[in-house]
Specification:
binds adenosine-5'-diphosphate; alpha/beta; binds magnesium ion; 2 domains
Length: 319
């Protein structure tokens, strides 16, 4: 499981926002991300809402054009290439299944569209069989293909979104908070299905969540983001046992623990102040305005992303 499938180097994504006549401002959504995702692994990505997780995932897929930096897929630099051949290998499952399915298309058309774009069926019969097989694979009835998305529950809609992603036999899937919009009771069904799919098909995932408890069990490694920056990345257990970055520590302290004695022993760290705007992020370390350990240097200098222990990366002046 060591060969990398995805690598990003100094990847940056700014959105320009028109502020008035000839006046623009920039949302610095992702700032200089450097990491890789290994073949067959799940890389979890966590951080508060608005910290740039979706932007990072979509930029890796080139659904957003990067502002600067590089993206590699299986060793190939794909930063500026035509994406059609890679669209087949790289897919996304969206956060809000109802918004990501065209209400005017039947389930069969939704799943079939990807098969058509990439010419994956030799005949009409083969196409129909493939759609039915995909629906069965995600736990839906193969007779559902003539129905419309609104006729399904949220969980079933997400299954349709998953069938659409699987239709092209991808290698890499960005799972963008795939269960956040669903009832808690069905979240684990979907997560379990994604895990089974990964085992069966050898898939590689970037699994985005705003909650550490969701990604802990399914991720091999976890990256933590704050205000556009990746602040820490480590193997999942290592990150939980030995969080280094002050922001990761605050996130950890917010995760409920089942053991009440341990829970009482642990101090919950509450961050002061609001999350700053990515249009005008703090100088130096973006976390310095809220960091309980900040020193003067944190305001002046951007901390360097470093490997502090084997496969454990962080960017912080006090480490
Ligand atoms: N298309 C866009 N145009 C302008 N700003 C955007 C766009 N998409 C996201 N943003 C901004 O970029 C920042 C990161 O957003 P996002 O990646 O959606 O965060 P997350 O997924 O972690 O909640 C936010 O401030 C958001 O408002
Ligand atoms: Mg998001």
């Amino acid at each position: 499981m060591n060969k990398e499938l995805i690598r990003v180097e100094d990847l940056r994504k700014y959105f320009s926002i028109k502020m008035g006549f000839m006046k623009y401002n920039y949302v610095q959504a992702v700032e200089d991300a450097n990491f890789s995702i290994r073949k067959g692994e799940t890389l979890g990505l966590v951080g508060e809402s608005g910290c740039g997780k979706t932007t990072l995932g979509r930029t890796i897929l080139r659904l957003h054009e990067p502002t600067s930096g590089k993206i590699f897929y299986d060793g190939e630099d794909i930063t500026h290439v035509k994406m059609l051949p890679y669209r087949r290998k790289m897919q996304i499952i969206f956060q809000d299944p109802s918004a990501s399915l065209d209400p005017r298309m039947t389930v069969g058309e939704i799943v079939g569209e990807a098969i058509d774009i990439h010419k994956l069926a030799g005949s009409k019969k083969e196409r129909t069989e493939r759609i039915q097989q995909l629906l069965t694979q995600v736990g839906l009835n193969s007779e559902h293909s003539n129905r419309y998305p609104h006729e399904f529950s949220g969980g079933q809609q997400q299954r349709i979104g998953i069938a659409r992603a699987l239709a092209v036999e991808p290698e890499f899937i960005v799972c963008d908070e795939p269960v956040s919009a669903l009832d808690v009771s069905i979240q684990s069904q979907i997560v379990n299905m994604l895990e089974d799919m990964q085992k069966d098909m050898g898939l590689t995932y970037l699994f985005i969540a705003h909650d550490l408890s969701v990604v802990r069990h399914i991720s091999n490694r976890i990256g933590v983001m704050y205000l556009g920056n990746m602040v820490e990345l480590a193997e999942s257990n290592e990150l939980h046992k030995n969080p280094l970055h002050p922001y990761t520590k605050t996130l950890m302290s917010a995760v409920p623990v089942p053991d009440p004695a341990k829970s009482r022993a642990r101090k919950r760290i509450i961050l002061e102040g609001d999350i700053p705007s990515p249009m005008n992020p703090p100088s130096g370390c973006r976390f310095h305005t809220r960091c309980p350990y900040a020193i003067p240097r944190c305001k002046e200098e951007v901390p360097v992303w470093r490997e502090l222990a084997t496969d454990h990366f962080a960017a912080c002046h006090i480490l």
